[in-house]
Design a protein that fits this description.
The protein contains 9 helices and 9 strands. It has 346 residues and is of the alpha/beta class. It has one domain (9-34, 46-53, 86-339): Rossmann fold (3-Layer(aba) Sandwich). Strands 1-2-3-5-4-6-7-8-9 form a 9-stranded mixed β-sheet. A hairpin with a 5-residue loop joins strand 1 and strand 2. Helix 4 (150-162) packs parallel to helix 9 and helix 5 (204-219) packs across helix 6. The longest helix has 16 residues, at 204-219. The radius of gyration is 18 Å and the shape is globular. 51% of the residues are buried.
């Protein structure tokens, strides 16, 4: 059964353009929130994260070619029923290696590479035997949690404790996962810079994420039972509105959705009457009280719940009521959402 679900594009564009642009980073826990006013003032000095001191220029000029992109079709790794893993090996080639210190004081090294025109920051676990749990985080508009390593600082302690293979992925257009991947957006902090990138109704960013997953499966032995996918704001919107309808049948997955979510923008490419496929998906939506995307988030929750997908909603206490979007400790909450997913079948 295929369901055709289309959203009113004009209304959605108006709603998301102001709701998702330049998501503020969470307050507390070592990072500084950037006010929404920065969107209306492109010249404001918001391109440096107060905690890391790193610039927010996400340009890819002069970078090495993509590392191990998948040339269409299925993963070269194939399935490995004996181990329950993808059977991949060799890892990804790094153009550079950097490190970050987590909020808990753990120093993590990460590999920077590119797949499907997306810059990846990859943390490999050490001393972990057997197939690896893959966790991928997608930022919201503005990309600061990725560019300034804020996501790694907030989520890195959980990564280290659980021995997962972690990826923070930058949107192919440098700034926004729900907008068209081309052209590259020059300034993530300028609202007008997004004007040439409409809503990605063709699902090209969803396809890019699939390519990233397949590249990871080919390069590492990934646990076939479940991948962990998380997104903030526009990243969460892309996952629920585009990726699941296009590729949700390919990967049993637990989705941690922070301050974002939409009903599908397009018809499903897979059979939603197949209970095994539907049963492989679990969703956790979280948002703070007063969140301005509450209605879109709850609509997405109710839509997927009606399909038979396991879906839960968490309403969090904001760290500040100065803003009304992603205004709770959403980066730190995403690992908790992954942990709350239904237990894996043995």
């Amino acid at each position: 059964m295929k369901r055709r679900i289309l959203c009113p594009l004009a209304a959605l564009s108006l709603a998301i353009a102001f709701a998702c642009a330049n998501d503020p980073e969470p307050e507390g826990e070592g990072s500084a929130a950037v006010p929404d006013a920065a969107v209306e003032a492109p010249d404001a000095a918001v391109d440096v994260d107060a905690a890391s001191g790193d610039g927010a220029d996400a340009s890819h000029d002069g970078e090495a070619p993509d590392a191990g992109p998948i040339d269409g079709g299925e993963s070269d790794a194939g399935a490995a029923p004996e181990t329950g893993g993808s059977g991949g090996s060799g890892g990804l080639s790094c153009r550079t290696t950097k490190s970050v210190t987590t909020n808990g004081g753990v120093k993590l090294s990460y590999c920077m590479t590119r797949v499907a025109e997306s810059e990846l920051k990859v943390v490999e676990p050490t001393g972990v035997a057997g197939p690896l749990t893959l966790a991928i985080y997608l930022h919201g508009d503005g990309a600061r949690p990725h560019v300034n390593d804020t996501a790694l600082r907030h989520q890195g302690d959980w990564v280290a404790e659980n021995g997962v293979l972690y990826v923070s992925a930058l949107a192919p257009n440098n700034c926004s996962w729900w907008r068209a991947p081309l052209p590259a957006i020059g300034s993530c902090d300028s609202e007008t810079a997004y004007d040439n990138n409409p809503q990605d109704t063709e699902g090209k960013n969803a396809d890019a994420l699939r390519e990233i997953i397949e590249a990871m499966r080919a390069a590492y032995d990934i646990d076939d039972r479940r991948v962990l996918l998380g997104g903030s704001s526009g990243g969460a919107i892309m996952l629920t509105a585009s990726f699941i309808p296009r590729h949700g049948d390919r990967y049993p997955a637990a989705y941690a959705l922070a301050c974002g979510g939409e009903v599908p923008w397009q018809e499903f490419a897979w059979d939603t009457s197949d209970s095994d496929l539907v049963g492989g998906i679990s969703l956790s939506f979280a948002y703070g009280t007063g969140e301005r995307l509450t209605s879109e988030i709850t609509d997405a929750h109710e839509f997927y719940e009606a399909l038979g997908v396991h879906s839960e909603v968490r309403v969090e206490t904001p760290t500040s009521y100065e803003y009304n979007h992603c205004h709770y400790n959403q980066l730190s909450t995403i690992p908790d959402q992954w942990d709350s997913a239904p237990a894996l079948a043995e």
